[in-house]
Specification:
about 425 residues; alpha/beta; 4-stranded parallel sheet; binds Double cubane cluster
Amino acid sequence: MADYTQMWQDLGLDLKSHDALLGVLGKAYADIFLAQKDRPEGMKYFDFVMSEVHGLRIREIVDAKAQGRVVVGSYCVFVPEELVLAVDGVAVGLCAGAEFGFEAAETLLPRNTCSLIKSMFGFKLGRVCPYLESCDVVVGENTCDGKKKAYEIFAPLVKDLYVMDMPQTKSEAGKKLLREEYKKFIAKLEKASGKKITPASLKKAIETVNLKRKAMIRLNALRAADPAPISGLDSLLISQVFFHDDPARFTDSVNKLCDELEARVKGHTGVAPKGTTRIVISGCPMAVPNWKVPLLIETSKAVIVGEESCVGERSTRWLTEVKGSTVDEMLDAIVDRYFSIDCAVFTPNPTRVDHVKEMAKKLHANGVIHYSLQFCQPYIMESGPVEKDLEKSHVPTLRLETDYSGEDAGQLKTRIEAFVERLKKR
Ligand code: BJ8
């Protein structure tokens, strides 16, 4: 990696802590990802992206800012990337998946807060995230109670926190609220960027994001093959990169990888022997560099073939219909698309378990591992009924609750291995 010290300094990063974080991240990446066997050649692009995750991509974002483009960060897949692109902005996902700065975070938050929220504070208080420090606007969303209240405390820490209200029910009133909030968000984006959204700019943005999602749909479908042509770890990594890479370049790289995976499927080659136990993961999002549970699964003689998560199919399965000739008409299509997302903050939320079942079937999974972060009420609460429903449908399910620490790795590994054994005996 080139020397980016000046750029990091200009962004206000704490260079010492940042260096330490990059050191840990680089080692973990080599141990977890580069050590895998039979990886597709196409993963080289993603290895490069990760080696430059705080370097080249940040340089691109800083250059985009210098050209007058607005940088908008968000913590949730309910924030429409299409609207950000329509003002020629740069959209970046900010969720963090590392146990960093938790002590500082706990001076502002209760200890029993989920790791994702603590990490969001830890990265800010420790000044180690160049994505967050590059943002002109940070968008919060009133989804779970944890985030909702955390944004009140987060607001004074960032330059411009814009909070969007979110529906909690899949009702007509809920949909109306989402539309109103997206309308207000358009006004915010236009003000922040000094650019107006036009039918042409919005149509182009919808098409760009659709292409990105289509590439992920193509990738996810290829994982139905046995042997699995790509590991769950690599697939998760791609889903994580989805949130901060340049959209067109990302789409192109995923499609090139898919060409290679198609050849693998035809040639019956993969990352694990044919007949390896196949798992679908379902639950909370796994933000980069949260690779703990997938690593434990894939080192327990199993392969992950799908992720029912916001860092996974929940953010890619729906496309926005390209229809209408006015911004308002196109916004209707955007609202339709986003209102389909079945996050556990909705009550009731029946389509989510249907999607888990559908994924398990189409990806020929032997079982589902439900993953919840500790103190995440929506997903923990939902995990009981989801497990019951899946087991009733003859889909064996294991429920895990964990955090970002490595302390429970041994215990989790024992449970995962026992579950894989159970699946083998069926
Ligand atoms: S659409 S899943 S990205 S809200 S883990 S902070 S829910 S207490 S992240 Fe999410 Fe949007 Fe929903 Fe997806 Fe709260 Fe749970 Fe923490 Fe969570």
